[in-house]
Write a structure and sequence with these properties.
Blueprint lengths: L2 H21 L2 E9 L12 E5 L4 E3 L4 H17 L3 E5 H4 L10 E8 L3 E5 L3 H12 L3 E5 L14 H9 L5 E5 L4 H14 L3 E4 L3 H14 L3 H5 L1 E2 L11 H17 L13
Parallel strand pairs: 6-7, 6-8, 8-9, 9-10
Antiparallel strand pairs: 1-2, 1-5, 2-3, 4-5
Helix pairs in contact: 4-9, 5-6, 6-7
C-alpha cells in the first residue's frame, strides 16, 4: 500500500469512528501490533474497523486475516470488554502462516449517558455518583430552584431531547409524583433508550404502568421498564438509593448478573 493509500484509509477509519461516536453506535478497531516475521507481508500498525453490522473499513493486509478478525470482532463486542490483545492462532488456528502474530481489539463507543428525570435528593446523588464512574449526565426537572428552568420547555420535552436516538442512553425517572413519573416515562419509552427505570413502590409504579398500558403502550415496551428501579441492597438514604440504581444501570450495560461474586463458594 502506498503512502497516499495509507493516508486515505486512515482518514476513512477516522471519519467512521467519528460517525460511530456521534450516532451512539459501537464498533471495534483492530490493530496489528506484532507481525512476528517479514515473510507474512503484514505491516505493524495496519488497522481494520468493524461495526456492529460487520461492515469493514481498512485492512490488516490479508483478506483471510480480515475475515477471521471480523468474526472475532463480533465475539469481542459481546464480551463487553474495552480492549484485549489476541494471538491470531487463538481465534484463527487455520492461519498457520500467521502463527504468533498479535492484534489489539479496542471497543469504539461514546461515553455512556444517563438522563435523570427529577433533581431531588436521589436524583442529585445519582448525578454525582454517575459522573464519578464516567457517565455523561443530564439532569432534568421542572422546578427552577433545582435546575435552570429556562433551558427546557417542559420535563417531557427535555427528557425526549436528552435521550436522542436512545443508543448508549440510560434513563432514571426519580420525580416527585405520579403525574411527573407518567409524563417522563411516556416520553422515555417512546424514545427507546437502552435502559429505563422508575423509582417508587410496587403500587406506585404499577399505577403508572397500568395508565400507560390503557393508553396503548405495548407490553414489550412496558416489560423493559425497571420498576421499581435499582438492585435490592437494602438502601435507605438517598445516596444508597442512588448506588442501588447505578449498580443496576452498570450491570445492564456490562451484562452483569447483579448477584454476589462470592456465590460460587456457596454452591
Amino acid at each position: 500500500m502506498t503512502a497516499d493509500e495509507t493516508q486515505a484509509q486512515s482518514k476513512l477509519i477516522s471519519d467512521a469512528i467519528s460517525k460511530a461516536l456521534d450516532d451512539g453506535s459501537v464498533a471495534v478497531l483492530v490493530t496489528l501490533i506484532d507481525a512476528m516475521n517479514d515473510e507474512s507481508g503484514l505491516a505493524v500498525g495496519a488497522k481494520l474497523l468493524v461495526n456492529q453490522s460487520a461492515n469493514r473499513i481498512g485492512s490488516l493486509g490479508a483478506s483471510d486475516l480480515d475475515d477471521a478478525v471480523a468474526n472475532q470482532a463480533q465475539r469481542f463486542l459481546s464480551s463487553r470488554r474495552e480492549a484485549e490483545t489476541f494471538k491470531v492462532e487463538a481465534f484463527a488456528p487455520e492461519l498457520t502462516q500467521l502463527s504468533g502474530a498479535s492484534v489489539l481489539f479496542e471497543r469504539i463507543e461514546a461515553e455512556p449517558r444517563l438522563v435523570i428525570a427529577g433533581a431531588g435528593h436521589v436524583g442529585a446523588s445519582l448525578a454525582r455518583l454517575a459522573g464519578l464512574v464516567g457517565y455523561r449526565v443530564t439532569l432534568v426537572d421542572d422546578r427552577a430552584e433545582f435546575v435552570a428552568r429556562e433551558l427546557f420547555a417542559s420535563e417531557t420535552d427535555a427528557v425526549r431531547e436528552a435521550i436522542g436516538n436512545g443508543r448508549g442512553v440510560s434513563v432514571a425517572i426519580v420525580t416527585r409524583g405520579h403525574k411527573q413519573d407518567e409524563d417522563c416515562l411516556r416520553a422515555a419509552i417512546a424514545a427507546r433508550p437502552d435502559y429505563v427505570g422508575m423509582i417508587g413502590s410496587k403500587r406506585r409504579t404499577n399505577f403508572v404502568l397500568d395508565k400507560l398500558r390503557e393508553e396503548g403502550a405495548s407490553e414489550d415496551q412496558l416489560k423493559k421498564v425497571r420498576a421499581p428501579i435499582g438492585l435490592d441492597i437494602g438502601a435507605v438514604s438517598p445516596e444508597e438509593v442512588a448506588l442501588a440504581i447505578l449498580a443496576e444501570i452498570v450491570g445492564e450495560r456490562r451484562g452483569g448478573s447483579g448477584g454476589p461474586l462470592s456465590e460460587w463458594r456457596r454452591s
